[in-house]
Structures are given as structure tokens and as C-alpha cells.
Amino acid sequence: MITSLQNDKVRYVRALQSRRRVRRRERRFVFEGVRLVEEAVRAGVRPDFVFYTARAVAEARGNRLLASLREMNAPCDAVSEPVMAACSDTEAPQGILAVIPIPTLPRLEHPTLTLVLDQVRDPGNLGTVLRTALATGVEQVLLAPGTVDASNPKVVRAAMGAHLHLPMAALGWEAIAEAAAGCDVWLAEAGGDMRYTAVDWTRPVVLIVGGEATGAGTRARALARGRVSIPMAAEVESLNTAVATAAILFEVVRQRAVGANLPESGDRSGR
Length: 271
Fold this sequence. Notes:
Blueprint: H1 8-18, H2 20-26, E1 28-32, H3 34-42, E2 49-52, H4 54-58, H5 60-71, E3 76-78, H6 81-87, E4 96-101, E5 113-118, H7 123-135, E6 140-143, H8 153-159, E7 168-170, H9 173-180, E8 184-188, E9 194-195, E10 205-210, H10 218-223, E11 226-229, H11 241-258
């Protein structure tokens, strides 16, 4: 059992959890908790190594998970509770974590649904958006400058395994503009002149969503062909980024499932 905080593996996990530059250099991040590690196993991702506590594997679910990890020939090390607490990014560690490679998933050459996130700085919001993007069939997520690092531990937890299945990339605006070529580009913004239900989302589209505090920047505005909004009660100024993104993306799902019934010309203001 590993009991020392000076152990090389322990120091490595703590560095991955706390330093973006280490995650970038190593191309590794930490999946923490039973559910996330289970998701890695289901996806066939072999961890570099696993830490677990006796408490975690005393329960049937944790014991089954450890057996699955050993079947994958993943190195599994028992650690003390203090070591797990030092390696954890949560206040109440579940007693298991895995160091895994950051996936590099290929992006489609001609995607029909791209999500661009501009200056989304809250890790919980970004993680929730990624989870929603996976659920709604987004084909790629592009992270514009100023957006929080997608490998941040809080992002990883909130995304609940989306990193393993959803192509994403941090790009500059020139590369984002190239990726958006040939698509309708819409910016989600309070006060936008088009209701989100009036847009033809069955076409190849790019949806840009800005951050919580300042919204989208000037480069996002320059790229967008129009602005879409979600009707709200008069006393509500704006929606949380993750909530607004979910509302629009599920409208995309609805339209693509049943077929859009939008006019080909004329007034499409949605008013």
C-alpha cells in the first residue's frame, strides 16, 4: 500500500490535478470516482495506473470495477485514505481514480453540427455543456481563446465521460473560421433578433455560445451570420451558459428528428 505523499506516482497525480501545463505536456488527466472510471473501462481506455482505497473496493460495485481494471492489465495500487485525499480534487473522495491518456479524437471533415465556446471560464459550466453536446449529437466542440482548459478536473467531472467520445479542440479564431466554412454560423445571445426555434437547424450549422460574465467577444460576433435568443420572462436578464446551450441544442435535436417546417424565404425573424 502506498502511504507516502512523496511517492513518485502520488506526486505525478497531484501535478496532473493542479497544473494545466503538466497535463498538456504529459497528455494525461485524471478520472476520479467510480462512475467516471467505469466509463473509461466501458470505452476500452486502459489507464496508465489506478489508485484505490480499501474502503472503495469493500463495496460490490468498486470491487467489480477493480476486477475489470485488472483484466485490462491496468496497474492498480492500493493507497491510504490520506494519500487519496491528497490526490483528490473533491472534498469527499470516492476512493478510486485513474490516470488516463487525453483522447485525440478525429474531427469530421464536413460536420453538420459544431459548437464553439467563447470565453466560457467556469469549469462546471464547460463540463455540463460538453455532456449536453454529447447527448445532442454535436459532432465537434471548438474551444476559443479565453475558454477554460477542458482537462481541468472540475470540467472532467462535470462532463461525465464526454471527453472519451466527443471530438474537441482548442483553436484560434482563424482556425475556427476555417472549420466554420460552408456552415450557417449563429451566435446565442440575449436580445438576439432571431428566436432559436425559428432557425433552420437542419442545415450544417455552427453554434457559438459566449461566457457567463462578458458573453461572446468581437471575433465571435464577426464570424456569426446572426444572433439567436431564447424568450424569457421580462424579469429574467439571462440564462446560465449551460442551460441556454442545452435549450438550443435540444431544439436542434427536435428539428432534425421531425424535420424542420421553416419557410425558404420571407420573414424568418421568429417574431
